[in-house]
Each structure stands twice: as C-alpha cells, then as structure tokens.
Amino acid sequence: MEPKKYPLPPFNMETAQQKVQAAEDAWNTRDPEKVSLAYTIDTEWRNRTDFINGREEVKQFLKSKWEKELDYKLKKELWGFKDNRMAVRFEYEWHDHSGQWYRSYGNELWEFDENGYMQKRFASINDLPIAETDRKLV
C-alpha cells in the first residue's frame, strides 16, 4: 500500500490550491518518474487525443513529451473544486528542436482517490506559436 498523498479530499480552498501548486512544482521538474508518483497505478488520462492508462504509460508519455517540448515552463491555476474533483486552467511555454517557441493553453479536469492520488486527468490543450521575445513564463 502506498503512503497517502496529502492533502487529501474532500478539498477546501486552501488544500485545493496546495494540490494545484504541488502539481505545478512537480511538472516543472520535467522528471517523469517524480511526476508519475502523484497518480494512481491505474490512472486514466486523456491528453489532447492521447488516451493513457496506468502510471507506467504516464511515465513513457511524459518522457516522450519532454524530449519534444524543450525548456518547458508551466503555470497552473485552480478554477474550481468539489469533494475529490478539481478544474484547473494552465499555460506553458516550450520550444521544439528547430527553436520555434510555443505557448500551450488548456484546461484539466482532475479526480482524486481517497489517498490523495489523481485517478483521472482529462486535458484539452491548444498550442500557439510565439516569438521567443513574447515569452511570459521565464
């Protein structure tokens, strides 16, 4: 049995914001192993058009993502929560191997188990090509 991943649901404003900040901090490490540990072993994801099932697939997905999305920097914001669910908006910036920068915008719906691990993550994301001088998340 894995240790509890605090804070636990049901969330209040303070604990919901803590959970969002913890996710932002983890994703900004760009460490697939570390990030994957926030999710249940059998987590379900939809990321754009990818359907990902289980922590091992999450690790592989993130490894591939950060091999493509270089110098990734993310900012998340809580939009709402109830019980064990949250809605989060985010934006992140990255560049590809050719040097083209992008700002990616999106929304996520999260659902947590009773031990504080995310069991469902559904993300809708759009990419906007930007000039390096237009970056906001430095």
TrEMBL record:
<dbReference type="Pfam" id="PF07080">
    <property type="entry name" value="DUF1348"/>
</dbReference>
<dbReference type="InterPro" id="IPR032710">
    <property type="entry name" value="NTF2-like_dom_sf"/>
</dbReference>
<protein>
    <submittedName>
        <fullName>Nuclear transport factor 2 family protein</fullName>
    </submittedName>
</protein>
<dbReference type="InterPro" id="IPR009783">
    <property type="entry name" value="DUF1348"/>
</dbReference>
